[in-house]
Amino acid sequence: MNTPPSPSGADGTDRSSVRLGALAPLTRPGWAEAGRHLLAGLDLAVREVNDAGGIGGRPLELVVRDTAADPERAAAAVEELAGLGVAAVVGEYHSVVARAAAARADALGVPFLCSSGVLDALTDEPTEWVARLAPAQSRGWRIYGDFLLAAGRRRIAVATQPSVYWASGARVLRDHLAPRGGTVVELDANALTPEALCDALVDHGATALLLLVGHPEPAVPIVRAVRGDRRLAEILIGAPAGQPEFAGWAAALGEDGAGIPFLRYLPERLGALGERVGKELRERLGEAPSFVAFEGWDTVTVLAEALRSHGTDRAAVAESWPRVAVEGTRGAIRFSRTPGIGVWQWAWAPIQVVDRDPAEPFRFRTLHTG
């Protein structure tokens, strides 16, 4: 039976530790590879906090729950974690899932520091309980739109599936490109076979195809079909949501997965802190860390500073968002109120458009920065 949350949020089965709830997609249909990277960053930062003396001498403890990309499961996990007495909840990769977690955290009065969800409307109404490290989708996807225009790609087709996240992304692109002479046509990836989608691209005279779909299905068969269609030899395939970031993409597609630009939230060059953390993450993961792993590390580091400086009381943590200033792996992190965003937002997370080098698919090329 769950212990009811205390006003301080510090009560639980182990009074000696400061407990943080952590949400991540660790099983299918969640993007488990992203969840593994996120958890690696969260866990590494917790270990470093504890090696440095913890929170006022108390160890930080991560209580992990798998969301499996299920919004209802995430909301239930937040409720369970609140009952276990966590001081705050962190994490989550999938935007729609993060939105459900944010709504429940707001309703329960539990601080939630979202690591990776980018939907602008992370909450329906402004809230003091939620802060976010990832840049808002409107900012990142407008930068992606600028990249498309600079590359001379104005007739854009998007292969999409029903989702608040994909619909929001398509709307951002359409609103940004239309005044600049660009067009966006949506193709239903659930209704069209990959071959029929190729025919539609030819019919529309598309110069770019953006994959606003799940990975590996249907993204992988769509890429293979387009790459194998001689009529589409000149088309640019893009994946703004970041599918090519992870090794699983390269393993599934090989050379076909290269040259597909995506958004990544890293600076052009990491500083000394980022290099050090990146090395630790590489050893932990057994592969190059994604930007999601860095988001995880930064999340716990920011929250640990809030807990040290303002205490473990939940209300005090939420009140600390505008006063926290931390050097993260990707720059100085401060939260502010951004117009149109209802949560405390790190406004200046670095944004790149990158792809895998066709000559060396495990190497990334920076194509555009914002």
Query: How far is it from the N-terminal to the C-terminal residue, by CA?
Result: 49 Å
Proportion in helices: 25-40%
SSE topology string: EHEHEHEEHEHEHEHEHEHHHEEEEE
What would you report as the Rg, rounded to the nearest angstrom?
21 Å
Low-confidence stretches: 1-14
Main β-sheet description: 8 strands, mixed
Provide structural commentary.
With 370 residues, this protein is α/β, with parallel strands linked by helices. The protein is built from 11 helices and 15 strands. It has helices at residues 32-51, 71-83, 95-108, 137-150, 164-177, 194-204, 219-227, 247-253, 272-285, 291-310, 314-320, and strands at residues 18-24, 60-66, 88-91, 112-114, 130-132, 155-160, 183-188, 208-212, 236-238, 262-264, 325-328, 331-337, 344-346, 352-357, 360-369. The protein has an 8-stranded mixed β-sheet with strand order 2-1-3-4-5-13-12-11, with helices on both faces. It has a 4-stranded parallel β-sheet with strand order 7-6-8-9, with helices on both faces. Strands 10-14-15 form a 3-stranded antiparallel β-sheet. The longest helix has 20 residues, at 32-51. It is globular, with a radius of gyration of 21 Å. The termini are far apart.
Brief summary of the model shown:
The protein has 370 residues and is α/β, with parallel strands linked by helices.
